């Protein structure tokens, strides 16, 4: 079997599906290859749904701010899909003076980038969210942050891309990439060869093993992320939540259940050869103990399911969004380090602009792949 397209995308998560849509919208023929049997089966269907600016690395802020200002507000209408986008702010919580110091540093960096975010004390925190316990002594508050549904957002991009002619092939793992005269030209799968003038690898943790044989190395590792979902509860709050140490996050969904993620400290020590990592008996109880300290009112909420997924954690904590050095036509979107959902639409839009000769809306140089080179 052989197939030819203008652009070949490897990976059908939020970035791959969104890039397929934006490229097809520009008239490109697009084929998307997905190793799993379902679209968005990686981190894009296993995350907390945050669409936030606060708490980010300053290098990411211009891109995610642009996306929240220009893409997210009208995304449901554009995709004809209820992405459940709610823009009711983000409280990043602190319980100790050390936490407040961390939050103040992040706030100062964000303000310097033009973000509307400020520190507030415990009383103002509880004025915004009265369900928080007295243990919370302060927080950073960003009123333009929010959350959305990762499943429906990814599905919306997939459906719209297909409507514009993009071809999605699931159960089709890419085994290798090929060059011709120094330029990327094809992807090899068990079924055959797919040829394209440009290839975008947006395959999460699998990106590195595909590009290494071509001499392109993005230093990153697998890190397990786990979340839990509660039964539906009466509406309590609309904000996205996080903490100074990034060990707890979550929100209440449109139908009433809560989606919460947490950290046990054991995430780096999992079995990285698992294709689909399993939740463990350690994670949910650890997260629940944290939840009860922040939200005593949720102490009796029942957990209905948990999930786990791989995070492609880059060496410096921000993604690579770039044409691969030394391999013309090969583009990378990887290393999102656990916060790729909210920035995903803007990242995909920007790459589509660059791949079609346009100008991305913000400077992408902080995300260049050559930044990991040793300095001599």
UniProtKB/TrEMBL annotation:
The keyword Cell membrane does not apply. Gene3D superfamilies: D-Amino Acid Oxidase, subunit A, domain 2, FAD/NAD(P)-binding domain. GO terms for molecular function: oxidoreductase activity. It comes from the Bacteria. It is an enzyme of class 1 (oxidoreductase). Its EC number is 1.-.-.-. Residues 6-354 form the FAD dependent oxidoreductase domain. InterPro entries: FAD-dep_OxRdtase (IPR006076), FAD/NAD-bd_sf (IPR036188). The chain crosses the membrane at residues 7-24. Keywords: Membrane, Oxidoreductase, Transmembrane, Transmembrane helix. The keyword Oxidoreductase applies. GO terms for cellular component: cytoplasm. This is FAD-binding oxidoreductase. It comes from Caproicibacterium argilliputei.
